[in-house]
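Exercise 7. Predict the structure of Branched-chain amino acid ABC transporter substrate-binding protein from Comamonas serinivorans.
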Amino acid sequence: MTSHIPRRLALGMALSLGTGLVQPAWAQASRGKPAEAKPIRVALIESLSGPFANTGEAVYRNLLWATERVNARGGVKLPGGARRLQIVRFDSKGQVEEALAAMQGAADAGIEYIAQGNSSAIAAALIQAVDKHNRRDPKHRMLFLNYSAVEPSFTNEGCSFWHFRFDAHSDMRLAALMQVMEQDQELKQVYLIGQDYSFGQAVLRQAQAELAKRRPDVQVVGNELHPVGRVKDFLPYANKIVASGAQAVVTGNWGNDLTLLVRAARDAGYKGRFYTFYGNALGAPAAIGDAGIGKVVAVADWLPNMPDHGSRVFYRAFRDRFPRPEDDYVHMRMQLLIEALAQSIERARRTEAGAVAYAMETAKVSLAGRSGAMRAADHQFQQPIVVGVMDKLGAPGVTVDVEGSGYGFRVVKELSPDEASMPTTCRMVRPPR
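Solution. The predicted structure, encoded as tokens:
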């Protein structure tokens, strides 16, 4: 008799085979020995192949290191005994359809938590998909932990009880950048360029609003969107930037779209500044070289050259774990995300997504002298924001460089969580406890 496997279950089985879920370590205990408790699994849904694979792998290293730290101290404490955290990789290939298939595969495999961030377009689809899944299958609900998708609506009018964001959204990041930009009294002309999807559009829209408010004397001489991950040669864009006479470029570009843009700008002879969301790693500093000294500005939740002992120890530990120069991209917020998850599971005393979500609404975590707290009103993590300027290794305030490039970022501005915070329009709908 032929057995017919439902398509969704078959997909989950296929993904499980690809990620080693069929026979995980906890199910392979030697005969005669008690089996280790089943790990608490987190599905990482990210670009692990294609043009943005380097960004997905950077996330994986951060989450892996964070779970290793939790597991090294005994794991997540629960009434039935401690359990390890485990990251399970799902390759979205940077595509919405692939990400949704991966989410369903994770659900079919019984995984209760998904993590994603390197695309607001994918995040938007996942938020809707998780909401729908939790309505249809309330006994097997899921949480979405977002570490990088910074489209502002996700914690405003589009907020969801099942979504928690651990990165500052783009309006928060841009406001921090603008506090540095408005001090540059020589600045008169700015070029805006970004990726053509919700996040890139939001950055350019808010940049115009912030400039009009903070620097009405500055003229926007270019406002341009380009396809995401498809442009191989940014020289035509760079030539337009040079021809515009812009003294600064504002961009939310990330991954290869940022690296190729700054490299093309250098080759085109652009001498102005770059105000970026992600210019502090993934090849960008090496691509622009000496031309970026004092001119490439980046905003982040934390930078390796933070002038405190805790940050130095934290960064050194990450580099000891991942010593290759190309692996040098550590995110404090991803470490705090895993700490918040472990804390919330322990407070809930179980792993069920609804109970953990209610506990996570009031999560407060600290690591290496950095702290953050989840805001229950919209599930937007409240944390410091820092702004850094590129300089040579060894310059004052630059004790470590980026990816062995010889360039690092000197901290020039730090905002406390209260200073970085923004109001929300979220009207959260919560399920019964």
